[in-house]
Amino acid sequence: MYAIAPEHHLNALVLALTTGFKDPMPSVPDDDATLMHRYRHGDVDAFRELYERYHKRLHRYLLRLANRAADAEEVFQDVWAAVIRGRGDFRAQTSFASWLFAIAHRRAADRFRLLDRHAPEWRSDSEDEAGIDDLVATDAIAPERVAHSEALGVALLEAIAALPPLQREAFLLKAEGELTLDQIASITGTSRETVKSRLRYAQVRLRKALEAWQ
User: Fold this and answer.
1) What is the 3-state secondary structure (H, E, C) of the chain?
2) Distance from CA of residue 14 to its chain's centroid?
């Protein structure tokens, strides 16, 4: 006759036999603020993860803002160096994306103002804001929406490059930074309405430039 195992032994046996058949619990990625907290306390892997999340978006923003790869690359390196030096200044209640692109805005403005071809345009809007309420609000033209067509993608990039710098920056902060109007206003030191105007002008110009593709 076989002895009946105590209940807790049976539970342990069942657990041991079934553990291998259970699906592992999916890991939930840390949010940006948590990663910055970890990085501030010496976790280099947390910085690598933040870099992986944002480096392509940041590089596209700077490249399309500068229109010169060398200028964009210099500011790109400077921005990440500033993130490393200033990691202790980051506050958890702040969006990391907003903080990162604010650094990029300042570095880009300082760098590009030194270039004669940018200086006049960076200091003022190139459009008269009068009559902005008469414009039809349109959705932003997202680059990924035209990725299926190489020629259309090239046309879009050319149209973005042709935007007045302040409109181009507002559009790129929205498209690449995925920032809100209030965040863009804070970064650029303007009002929410000014940001909205720049975005709407940019959208109208882009749609007009791409009319042949519609």
Assistant:
1) CCCCCCHHHHHHHHHHHHHHHCCCCCCCCCCHHHHHHHHHCCCHHHHHHHHHHHHHHHHHHHHHHHCCHHHHHHHHHHHHHHHHHCHHHCCCCCCHHHHHHHHHHHHHHHHHCCCCCCHHHHHCCCCCCCCHHHCCCCCCCCHHHHCCCHHHHHHHHHHHHCCCHHHHHHHHHHHCCCCCHHHHHHHHCCCHHHHHHHHHHHHHHHHHHCHHHC
2) 49
Residue 151 has pLDDT above 70, yes or no: yes
- Structure tokens belonging to residue 133: 């309420």
Rounded to whole angstroms, how far apart are CA atoms 53 and 10? Answer: 47
| The Cα angle at residue 183 between residues 66 and 85, in degrees rounded to 5 | 65
Distances (CA, A) of 162 to 9, 23, 57, 98, 209: 74, 52, 20, 25, 10
d(CA 36, CA 33): 5
Q: Tell whether the torsion through CA atoms of 152, 154, 156 and 159 is positive or negative.
A: negative
- Taking only the tens place, the pLDDT of each residue in 50-60 is 999 999 999 99
- Residue 50: what pLDDT? 96
Q: How many CA atoms lie within 13 A of 186 on its CB side?
A: 14
Q: What is the pTM of this model?
A: 0.73
Q: How far apart are CA 97 and CA 188, in angstroms?
A: 14
